[in-house]
Amino acid sequence: MAHLSYFSPALANQRSSKVSVGPAESWSSDLSRDSCEYYQTEIFGLLPSSQAHRRLHAETLADDQDQSLLDRVSWNPSVPLRDLPVCLQDKRDIRERQPLQRCSIGYWDSWRRSQQKTRRRLKEHVGGAVSGLLPWRHTLHKIEGDCSYASIQSYELNLCTKLEYPIKHLRIKHCFHPGIVLKQPSMFESAAESGQRVDTKPRASRQQLPRVPLRDLPVCLQDKRDIRERQPLQRCSIGYWDSWRRSQQKTRRRLKEHVGGAVSGLLPWRHTLHKIEGQFGVGVKAYFVFLRYLLCLNLLYCVIIAGSVLTPTLVFAQNSSTHGSLGFQNFSFKDFFVGSGVLESSPVFHSFYTRGSLDLDCLNTPILFLLGMFSVLFLSIIMVVRRTVVGYKHSWLTGNRFNSNLSYKVFCGWDFCIQNPQAASLKQNFVRNELRMDLEEQTFQQRVQQRSLRHWVQLIFLRILLNVLVLVLLGSSFILIHFAIQTSQTKCENHWTLCLMLEYLPPITMTTVNYILPHVFSKISEFEDYSLTIQLNLTLIRSIFLKLASLGIYLFFFINAQESPEQHKCRENAFGKEMYKLTIFNLLECFFNAFCVAYPRMLLVERFPSSKLAQLLGKKQFEISFNVLDLVNSQTVTWVGVFYCPLLPAINTIRLLLLFYVKKFTVVRCSVPAQRMFRTASSSVLFHFMLLLGLFMAVVTLVVNINRFDQGGCGPFEGNRTVFTVTSVCIKTLPDPVQSTISYISSEAFAFTLILAEVVILTSYVSRGRANRKAIERLKDMLVMCSSDKRFLVKQHSTIMRRQQRTR
Amino acid sequence: MGGTSSKLPKDLLSEYQELTFLTKQEILMAHKIFSELQDRENGLYSSRVSMEKILTLPELKSNPFRKRICHVFSTSDMKDGSLSFEDFLDLLSAFSDSATLEIKSHYAFRIFDFDDDGTLDARDLEKLVNSLTGETDDTRLTGEEMRQLISNILEESDIDKDGTVNLSEFQHVISRSPDFVSSFKIVL
Fold it and tell me: What domains, with CATH codes, occur in chain B?
């Protein structure tokens, strides 16, 4: 082949005088890097990337891997034939080949594709008709012809410079850091050998070296020392400003690390969580981390409420008889559970916080109460939204949440924190099961593609039936709760324990329903013939709906109930009492679950492993999702009740503290790790979103309640001094400009402008995202081309080398 | 250096703090553990600890990649996986929780590259999957499953379609998973 003789050393020697004789150096041809002479060589025409448009006529293809490129360019059925850059005859050939593929597609897909085609044609017709109506087409066409060349050129230049950067990366396949090319293609040579090569790099990249902190370089310690020794030699060329700035950055970074270390040292239970992580994996640890986060949140609420609500009331209290110690003699055990008696007039409930002696226009106890409560809710909104958004960004980066991504499961599959041999073999089991499940899901998807029409109809019918069953179950549970609430409102004449049970009937019903139904839902979803991930998420969504809706019905009932006026003089207190009962019952339930259900079950399985019951039940698995749902539920209850039971966050804090130790006992002593690996990133988004939903529900309930309790019976807003009058009195005392600003901000015009501005900003972000995605696709195609070029050149090179050795 | 010096000189300590991601307490703890490993060796005080001794550490004992980790971080000329104290610090620094994602992904790539050729080809991937699932016959994936898995991995992560996963492609896959940093961690 004549064109290959260009690269033989003899010919190269003739052309240039500075080429040395050795085989490795024969590659340093006289083609200068800056000029584009290599585009004019013969071999350029043979490269796969130059041949790509001509490949469609090829009878035989040399490489199997080039076949895939061919397939991508020409066989993609969703690309319309007009968009292919080939001649007419090739388009006819492709169109003939297309029907052969269609049988493996499926009726649904082909129908959808024909619909897309019809829609596209219709759009083109309409577009053509509209542009025919536009005036001045001919004039604009003439103007464009004169002025467009310059704009096209500049656009192309921009695109070239943008795409040049990634090409530089591709040229050196094993380069691992853009700022330092200390090691050339043979990757793991020691620094001493490659030290000389640093000097051959152009000046620009050498100056880039010191910008990276030494710690971030992936080389061994001795190499880092060598680099650091070289750095002061370069520093004289940097300048005092840069070195001062860099030392400032270093100090700032170290300070941040110190503060971060101090803060994380304050967090409790680090050692326990580390042990749990080693034994049970990252998912269970995530649950406990979430619990700790809620604990800190509730503690923060306690501080805020103590400062803004409790302290003013205690300090500026009027000595009225209602705060007397009438209760201490009559304290009974029942009061603790129901919230009556002495607790009713204690700081726990709303009625304690009367308007004290602090009675200025804009600084009185009601205003402080309002400020405290609203700051609690506002803080919650900010923190929960922030956590949801951060988690959502992460899971968006991982791509489709519901599809399996095998590469990162394999690359990130091993948890290096595991120290226990049993935990290690357990983890190996998980990984194997997870990989097998994903492979099965893939074959499942392929099976789905091949479902016949009759099968589809049967399946849809079955799914509708099961969904109706789910709705029936939900409806019946709601009716049950409603019935329980109604029964609990009746006055009870029996022994105080039975009365207690009657009062607690709604929470008992709700908890039982919330415990049983999710398991029923997970069983039902097995019959619906979805893939495993979709099954899990469907069960989760149904359980979320169940929990929030049952709480919602509970609240709804109270909002609509007609109570007799003498029974509940203080309706706010009644509402607060219900929330208090729910919280207390949550705590009791968790104790009960741990000591009366999980522990005996574990004992049974351990002592009598061969009995039928033990084999039926098996060891309890710690189900992370359902436990997190419980946490979210209880936090929602706290948010709903904080306005009417201001010490509820404090009670919740104590409850969470006890819950931590009880759950730790359950996990460590009574459970085995779950068989299915928990994807922390993707499901945590769902949990934070649920938290957000709960918060939203709490805010709505609060607003409705404030409207409802117009004539308050007790507490800081009793009588004529409702929430609205108190705030309006305060606003009227402010100066005029402030008043007009406030009235403008709360008007509809401002809200409308705000929404419009947000829509415009959102549109710009979305269009930028779309443009970036297109650029990514183009870059990926370029990568494939460059890689096939490289393979071609490497093959030619080895052929030449072999020929040279043979001729010697 | 004579005898078994159980204290680390101050300037070395500050240098290690600057060049690694470890805090002072972590470096001192590492020094203590490394000295214990050295003392357990029968024989003279040698500055390198053999791979077998390193593998007795509880953090590495149950790790299927323990031998690869030792080989990657070892700077010994004999390529036997023995670690000096500085190699040990490099190891802990790369696995600490303040190390950056780039460092971790770089070292993870080197650990998974079983034949040290700079790319992950199908053989490397097969060995990787076998380490993850267990080496015994009944815990391995079947040949058919392995083939399907490897073709899926290459399809997803091999962007330039050359049949191997190079470092940039590996880092691209890793950067999309936020759990990597928390699972690629060894804390003494």
Answer: 11-95 (1.10.238.10), 101-184 (1.10.238.10)
